[in-house]
């Protein structure tokens, strides 16, 4: 993959979506890109009862460290899942 960029912005509808592109994220970072990630929903309403409500927030933070995304480049919003379109204006 030949990516010519210095900064890359990743937009994830849900906190667990970042992992799907993990290989590409790793390549971006390995080739010198500064990667920023914005996730819009922690999906608290969809988390199974046997997990803590914070599980997807915890996991995206863990994954971002593994992939090499700086903590200050990770922005997490907490919109309710499936209601984002209600707030679009």
Description:
The chain has 89 residues and is α/β, with parallel strands linked by helices. It has one domain. Helix content is 25%, strand content 21%. The chain contains 2 helices and 3 strands; from the N terminus they run E-H-E-H-E. It has a 3-stranded parallel sheet with strand order 1-2-3, covered by helices on one side. Helix 1 links the parallel strand 1 and strand 2. It is globular, with a radius of gyration of 14 Å.
Radius of gyration: 14 Å
What is the overall pLDDT average? 80
Structural class determined from secondary elements: alpha/beta
Approximate helicity band: 10-25%
The oligomeric status of these chains comes to: single chain
Inertia-based shape: globular
Strand order of the biggest β-sheet? 1-2-3
Distance separating the two termini:
37 Å
How many independent structural domains? 1
In the predicted model, the low-confidence regions spanning at least 5 consecutive residues are none
Provide a count of the helices: 2
Order of helices and strands: EHEHE
Q: Beta-sheet strand percentage?
A: 15-25%
Number of strands: 3
Major β-sheet annotation: 3 strands, parallel
In short:
The chain has 89 residues and is an alpha/beta fold. The chain has helices spanning 22-30, 55-67, and strands spanning 7-14, 34-41, 74-76.
Keywords for this entry:
three-stranded parallel beta sheet; alpha/beta; 89 residues; 2 helices; globular
């Amino acid at each position: 993959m030949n990516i010519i960029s210095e900064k890359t912005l990743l937009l994830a509808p849900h906190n667990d979506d970042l992992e799907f592109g993990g290989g590409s994220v790793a390549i971006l970072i390995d080739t010198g890109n500064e990667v920023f990630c914005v996730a819009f929903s922690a999906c608290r309403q969809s988390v199974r009862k046997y997990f803590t409500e914070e599980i997807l927030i915890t996991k995206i933070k863990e994954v971002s460290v593994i992939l090499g995304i700086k903590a200050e480049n990770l922005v997490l919003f907490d919109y309710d899942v499936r209601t984002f379109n209600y707030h679009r204006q």
